Amino acid sequence: MNKQSLQKSAASGLVFGIIVIFLALIGFTVVFSGLIQKVLGQSLGVGQIPRIGNFFIFLGFLGIWNGWRAARQDSHESLTLPKVLLRAFVAGLSAGVLVMVYAVVVGGLDARGVDMRTYLSMLSSDSIKFFLFNQSVAMGGLIHVGFSTLMAVVGGLLAFGSEKSQEQVKATRTKVQNWSQRTWLGKVQGNPYVSYVLMGVVLLLLVLLPRTWGAYWNYVMGTVGIYVLLGLGLNIIVGLSGQLVLGYVAFFAIGAYTFALTTSPEPHNLVWNFWIALAVSVVAAALSGVLIGLPILRLRGDYLAIVTLGFGEIIRILLKSDLLKDFTMGPRGVRNIAGPTLFGRSFTSDVDYMYIIILAVLLSVFLAKRWQESSIGRAWLSISQDETVAQATGVDTYKYKLLALSLGAAFAGLGGALFASRNQFTGPEDHALMVSINVLCLVIVGGMGSIPGIVLGAFVLKGLPEILRELESYRLLVFGALLVVMMIIRPEGLWPARRPKLERPVEPDQEPAAVAITVGGKQ
Amino acid sequence: MEALRKKIPLTLPQNSIKIIRIIAALLLLALVIVRAIDVAAESQFGADTWLRLSVSGLIIGGMYALIAIGYTLVYGILFMINFAHGEVMMLGTFGGYFVFEAFNAIQVTATDGTQMSFLNANPVIAIFLAFLMGMTIAALSGYFLEKIAYRPLRGAPRLVPLISAIGASIFLQNAGQLLFGPQRRQYVNPVVLDRGIGWNLELSGSTVVLTYTGIFSLVLSAILMVGLYLLVQRTKLGRAMRAVAQDKKTAALMGINVDQIISRTFVISGALAGAAGVMWGIHNGLFNYFVGFLPGIKAFTAAVLGGIGNIPGAMVGGLFLGIVESLGPAVLGIDFQLKDVIAFSILILVLIFRPSGILGEALSEEKV
Question: Are the C-beta atoms of residues A27 and A118 closer than 8 Å to each other?
Answer without folding.
Answer: no
